[in-house]
Backbone:
């Protein structure tokens, strides 16, 4: 028997992600100093909230599991990655430039047809995807209305040409 379900409202979004980190200052050096997030609140030495554009917070970082806590081992369930959506190809290129200038390691990059993505790990080995969408009118859709995504090589040198 098929189960009837009610679709979620189309304007619902993911509001924020809250990550456990082992060293708050090291995490801030990545999220604030390299990626450019703004600190909106700090809770002593154990937590900090960051945002873009004055929102209360998009990212929360905490050491509530203890300073020096170890990352979850690979091959276990948990968060695969956090995807950070940039408003334009130019802004994604600017983020890539900042990573290169900071000599921060990138683990991968892909053209997904609907988007362009850069992959890396934060200092606590949380997976991070930095990406920008292509205009929706350019997305390939199959006969059933499903989006067709691909994973192809993303030319990072070409992407950098879009930076300021």
Residues:
């Amino acid at each position: 028997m098929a189960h009837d379900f009610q679709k979620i409202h189309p304007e619902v979004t993911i509001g924020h992600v809250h990550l456990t980190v082992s060293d708050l200052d090291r995490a801030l050096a990545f999220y604030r100093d390299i990626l450019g997030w703004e600190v909106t609140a700090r809770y002593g030495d154990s937590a900090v909230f960051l945002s873009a554009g004055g929102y209360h917070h998009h990212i929360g970082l905490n050491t509530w599991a203890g300073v020096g806590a170890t990352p979850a081992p690979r091959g276990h369930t948990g968060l695969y990655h956090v995807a950070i959506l940039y408003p334009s190809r130019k802004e994604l290129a600017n983020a890539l430039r900042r990573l290169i200038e900071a000599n921060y390691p990138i683990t991968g990059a892909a053209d997904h047809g609907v988007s362009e993505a850069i992959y890396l790990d934060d200092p606590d080995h949380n997976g991070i995807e930095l990406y920008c969408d292509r205009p929706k009118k350019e997305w390939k859709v199959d006969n059933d209305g499903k989006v067709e995504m691909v994973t192809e090589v993303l030319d990072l040198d070409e992407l950098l040409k879009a930076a300021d």
Observations:
- The beta strands are 17-20, 38-43, 47-51, 59-62, 82-86, 108-111, 115-121, 127-133.
- The longest strand covers residues 115-121.
